[in-house]
Design brief:
CATH topology of chain B: Alpha-Beta Plaits
Strand content of chain A: 15-25%
CATH architecture of chain A: 3-Layer(aba) Sandwich
Number of helices of chain A: 9
Largest sheet of chain B: 2 strands, antiparallel
Largest sheet of chain A: 7 strands, mixed
Order of helices and strands of chain B: EHEEHE
Order of helices and strands of chain A: EHEEHEHHEHHEHEHHE
Oligomer: heterodimer
CATH class of chain A: Alpha Beta
Structural class of chain A: alpha/beta
Distance between the termini of chain B: 6 Å
Radius of gyration of chain B: 11 Å
Strand order of the largest sheet of chain B: 1-4
Shape of chain A: globular
Strand content of chain B: 15-25%
Distance between the termini of chain A: 42 Å
CATH topology of chain A: Rossmann fold
Number of strands of chain A: 8
Number of helices of chain B: 2
Strand order of the largest sheet of chain A: 3-2-4-5-7-6-8
CATH superfamily of chain A: Thiamin diphosphate (ThDP)-binding fold, Pyr/PP domains
Structural class of chain B: alpha+beta
Radius of gyration of chain A: 17 Å
Helix content of chain A: 25-40%
Number of strands of chain B: 4
CATH architecture of chain B: 2-Layer Sandwich
């Protein structure tokens, strides 16, 4: 009998600190798999965010750097400009990329930096205790919106991928989800494509991944993936955006 | 002929593999692991086709598939 599925070489064999059913573990594996498949483990440099994935560098078996909250793309820009031979990516959550780091995100994309961005959207702030994020859905209850998000006072869910797709320098944007094995495989293809674009010097590529957060959504892991499928992917439609 | 091996000490018991196994061959173990969680275990591996759905959805990467 041959082993047909096991841990990628770029993913360290250590337990993660993520809650049961969290999508970060799947996203980490997909990214490690893409790095292995493209044979770029010696060349890749990751930039970790602030958020639940703040210690992602402990889980990947390649070079990483930590950025201040929201500034991952500024740090990644510097690394890529100084070392253009390396493959540089950022791994950011919605609180990092779409809230405190919106400025860096928009300007890096507008400059068309040759970077790969993995954007984990779970519609909530996980690390700090489940507060409302810019991507929180209307009516969604969080620690800071106990009656549900209200468009009159808190605005609408921020669709950062659609916003960035307007910019001429942006080359590739795709939204994928982790709510079933089939969707996970599509996410794997999108992440690989985003790295391939950087290898071919095509420019700014972003993959938005809709990821379950069972703990702060107050659901079981089962219910959380169902909620991504039935509710979240209606507000954030899946597929190639640019 | 295929089989899966679940690392019961790494498993956090989210049981997404149980929901997505097309043959319903995985269940929650009644015995706790060292973390104090009920890990997933194979009920009966004779019907396993090695489709890898369980391993693909596993957030802890603790399932190995053999075929």
């Amino acid at each position: 009998m041959k082993k047909i599925f096991s841990r990628p070489e770029s993913l360290r064999d250590v337990p993660t600190h993520y809650c049961p059913g969290c999508g970060h573990g799947i996203a980490h594996r997909l990214l490690a798999q893409a790095v292995d498949d493209l044979g770029i483990r010696e060349k890749v440099i990751g930039v970790a965010p602030v958020g639940c994935a703040v210690v992602a560098y402990d889980y990947w078996n390649f070079d990483c750097c930590e950025a201040a909250h929201g500034r991952a793309l500024a740090v990644a820009t510097a690394i890529k400009r100084v070392r253009p031979e390396n493959i540089v990516f950022t791994y950011q959550g919605d609180g990092d990329l779409a809230a405190i780091g919106t400025n860096e995100t928009i300007h890096t994309a507008n400059r068309g930096e040759n970077l790969t961005v993995i954007f984990i959207n779970n519609a909530i702030y996980g690390m700090t205790g489940g507060q409302m994020a810019p991507t929180t859905l209307l009516g969604q209850k969080t620690a800071t919106s106990p009656r549900g998000r209200n468009a009159d006072s808190e605005g609408y869910p921020l669709k950062i991928s659609e916003l960035l797709a307007q910019l001429p320098a942006v080359k590739y944007i795709e939204r994928v989800s982790l709510h079933s094995p089939q969707e996970v495989l599509k996410a794997q293809r999108a992440i690989k494509q985003a790295f391939q674009n950087q290898i071919e010097n095509k420019g700014f590529s972003l993959v938005e991944i809709l990821s379950p957060c069972p703990t702060y959504w107050g659901m079981s892991p089962d219910q959380a993936v169902e909620w991504v499928k039935e509710t979240m992917s209606k507000e954030f439609p899946l597929g190639r955006i640019k | 002929m295929a089989k899966i091996i679940i690392n019961r000490e790494k498993c956090k018991g989210c049981l997404l593999c149980v929901s997505f196994c097309p043959k319903s061959l995985i269940v929650a173990d009644k015995d706790l692991n060292r973390r104090g969680l009920n890990p997933a275990k194979t009920k009966d591996s004779s019907g396993c086709t090695g489709c890898s759905m369980c391993a693909i959805i596993c957030p802890e990467c603790c399932i190995e598939v053999y075929k």
